Amino acid sequence: MTIRVVIADDQAMVRDAFSVLLGAQPGIEVVGTARDGAEAVALAAELRPDVVVMDIRMPGVDGLDATRRITAHPDVHPKVLVLTTFNLDEYVYEALRAGAAGFLLKDASGVELAEAVRVVAGGDALLSPDLTRRLIAEFARLSTGSGPGSESGPARQRSEVRIDALTGRETEVLARIAQGLSNAEIAAALTVAEETVKTHVGRILHKLRLRDRTQAAVFAYESGLVVPGGTAP
């Protein structure tokens, strides 16, 4: 099955380079390119790609707002892969909360970009687990203060109520999702079959009313189930 991709970046050279790199990969087809967030939203609705590769900083409608609009669309369900630099941390965190499926540093190689597209399209694991784990943990820490995504008081209490709906094993799986582990890694850690982990992940997303495992990871940190630098329960 061919993965259909839309690339959104305000720099023509970047769009062209990514189009060539991804177009040369087996099983990936670039079906459109967008110069800004508004065009990305329109192309996502028109072309219905599997993945939108989204730059964050663009004029007009930026990548963050575009990601929010795309993931909120009732009839369009592409995965959004955000391109960033390590200096745009707060934007990355907001993009994850907006529904991005993962993110990749903008200086990644063509092979890394293609693999990222495949991983995001498959929806199996958080992209770049080590980097994802560090960034999500850092911004979960920031969100306990005045940073983006702050959650406290009644909002935190609602999160705790929702977590109470999970079984003990589902809670363990959620914590390991937040640590950036793939289904196979979680299965090995808990000594269960990978299919069992997939079943738990599906139930977690359903019970917590979350879109994907990236949102589940953010939820785990924001609810206090996992703390930055901590270990799984």
Helix content: 40-55%
Gyration radius over CA: 17 Å
Distance between the termini: 38 Å
Mean pLDDT: 81
**What's the CATH class label of the largest domain?**
Alpha Beta
Bin the strand percentage. 5-15%
How many individual β-strands?
Answer: 5
Approximate shape: globular
Uncertain residue segments: 146-155
Encode the helix/strand succession as letters. Answer: EHEHEHEHEHHHHHHH
Summarize the structure in words.
The protein is built from eleven helices and five strands. It is of the alpha/beta class and 233 residues long. It folds into two domains: 3-123, Response regulator (Rossmann fold); 152-222, Winged helix-like DNA-binding domain superfamily/Winged helix DNA-binding domain (Arc Repressor Mutant, subunit A, Orthogonal Bundle). A five-stranded parallel β-sheet has the order 2-1-3-4-5, with helices on both faces. Helix 6 (129-143) packs parallel to helix 11 and helix 9 (183-190) packs across helix 10. The protein is globular, with a radius of gyration of 17 Å. The model is unreliable at 146-155 (pLDDT under 50).
